[in-house]
Fold this protein.
Amino acid sequence: AIESVASDEVVQRRDNLHLVAGNALETAPFQEAESYFAPEKPVAIITEGIVGYLKEEGKRRLAMNILSILQKHGGIWILPATARGPGSSNKVEAPMDRVKFYEKLGFVVEERRLDSVKDQLVSYAQLDDGQKADIDMALDSAPSTLVLRARNTKQ
């Protein structure tokens, strides 16, 4: 699938874009991806659409692969607000359970509420007061996105 995306040029080719196929629960794909990293620059890892489907052991394995990268390079892991609980792929987790789970693995965890960045969005600024009120109400109950860093490493 990766080859078809690259060969069909669906993704614009750039010198700093490298596609690596693999299982996120194994270390080999992370090691291959890491070979493309600039050693002096921090990385940002975003796991959109995967964590919510993993059971606790899968979440732990993925987190440890990412932790290894962040310990060497510094940077952040952005874990979207839609991730599900550490122990089950069927339930939405309580925010504190999620924070404690990743802290125990060696991460420093910062919660970012979606409503804390809304004023920085150009699209939000263009809304009328009624539309802003609707967005504000929806964001009021939205879960937090987590920003994780490796504990005891360069930032």
Notes: The beta strands are 43-46, 75-79, 107-112, 145-150. The mean pLDDT is 81. The longest strand covers residues 107-112.
